[in-house]
Amino acid sequence: MTPFGTRLHEAVAARGPLCAGIDPHAALLREWGLDDDVAGLERFAMTAAEGLAPHVSVVKPQSAFYERFGSRGIAVLERLIAACRDAGALVLLDVKRGDIGSTSQAYADAYLDPASPLASDAITASPYLGFGSLDPMIDTARKHGAGVFVLALTSNKEGPEVQHATTASGTTVAGTVLDHLRRLNADASPLGSFGAVIGATIGETGEDLAFNGPVLAPGYGAQGGTVADLKRIFGASAGAVLPSSSRELLRHGPDAGALRDAALRTNDELAGLAG
């Protein structure tokens, strides 16, 4: 299978860099006039898929908002993933899993093996049991042409106590994560398949953010991130950034056409990101 990095590079060239979050918060369901139940969840998810998936390069469902409804919510997530992929979007499933050994492999099989009903093009992962704990996910992604986005420099206020901490070698934890990604992507062209999660609102950083892989940048739009921020933070690497927006887009629902128009406008705003 064509590597995820190659498929992502082609998708962004065709549809723009916007990553559209499909996160059915209870408050958003109410704003859409829907009940906070499985029927409301399904209506929300499939309307968002209709409005967004044919027009953006990447969609990013946050698994927790589906898991909270149990098995019926997971069934909605399965249908959402299939619908978005059928519409030509790559699916980045936001699960932030991180474990060791056979459990890490089980997560990889659940989300990255095409035989699974939850199979996605890429997932988010947590490296804080040691980057090597992600080896089963990395190996499975390579086998199936999928991708893994690893937490590196998140914009939540609690993140720095771990990510800015210094390791025994003198580098920061975030810098160590980026070094691992740099090695994984070293020989990839046009883009590696192993990415980092770096917030669009982190401000200044002394880290080297060039690692030949994609960046998921949450916080664009409603959370305050701008094109100027992305250019300042990522510099020459800005062309590999996927600015992620959820609330800014989803507030335009429940009309699928309004969701589409919001996504197209946002991609127009991002057109000069690589320039």
UniProtKB/TrEMBL annotation:
Tell me where on the tree of life, at the top rank, the source sits: Bacteria
Which residues does the entry assign to the active site, renumbered to this chain? 96 (proton donor)
Broadest EC class?
A: lyase
Q: What is any Pfam family matched here?
A: OMPdecase
Q: What is its EC number?
A: 4.1.1.23
* Domain Orotidine 5'-phosphate decarboxylase intervals: 17-262
Q: Which GO terms describe its biological process?
A: 'de novo' pyrimidine nucleobase biosynthetic process; 'de novo' UMP biosynthetic process
Q: What is this protein called?
A: Orotidine 5'-phosphate decarboxylase
